[in-house]
Specification:
The chain is built from seven helices and no strands. By secondary structure, it is an all-alpha fold. Helix 6 packs antiparallel against helix 7. The chain is globular and about 55 Å long.
Length: 168
């Protein structure tokens, strides 16, 4: 993504300030939906099949910690730092752009939930795609950041369940 591409992608939104408020609200709402769905899923598992609880907590939890360590090591600049653009959503963070931890979290959660409740995993994956778009349009992540977050979230979910299936 270049500064020119970003300006072209967001020109329509910038002409309508109310659309930036909608983008901001969508950012908060979609993230909240994912975390609420995850907590509801954990509650459901706790009440119905506690053998699924450990994988449901460990796979996203360990993956999140590992991704955070990798992201800290890479410490890639955000678009508003690297391209000198004016993002649609303000964020004070410097660096830590690659991969997107929000997008990663959605997809590792979607995979974890989807192993047990397929339709819910697919729905969360769709929300993840929307979050990916929002974070790029907001100017706080590059497309490569959200793509890497998506792929690493799915990969961590898959690897986590493969390891647990071998161990059990």
């Amino acid at each position: 993504m270049t500064a020119k591409q970003y300006e072209n992608w967001t020109a329509g939104l910038r002409r309508h300030p109310e659309s930036i408020r909608v983008l901001s609200a969508a950012n908060v709402l979609t993230t909240g939906i994912v975390y609420a769905a995850y907590l509801l899923y954990l509650g459901f598992v706790l009440l119905t099949n506690t053998t699924r609880l450990l994988p449901a907590v460990l796979i996203p939890g360990i993956s999140f910690v590992l991704l955070t360590l990798v992201r800290d090591r890479i410490n890639a600049p955000r678009p508003y730092e690297a391209l000198d653009i004016r993002p649609l959503l303000l964020k004070d963070t410097k660096g830590h752009s690659f991969p997107s931890r929000h997008v990663f979290s959605v997809f590792v959660i979607a995979f974890t939930v989807g192993v047990h409740i397929q339709w819910a995993g697919i729905a969360l994956g769709a929300v993840g795609l929307l979050i990916s778009l929002i974070r790029v349009l907001a100017g706080i992540h590059f497309p490569r950041d959200v793509l890497a977050g998506m792929l690493s979230g799915i990969a961590c979910g898959l690897i986590g369940f493969l390891i647990l299936s071998v161990l059990s």
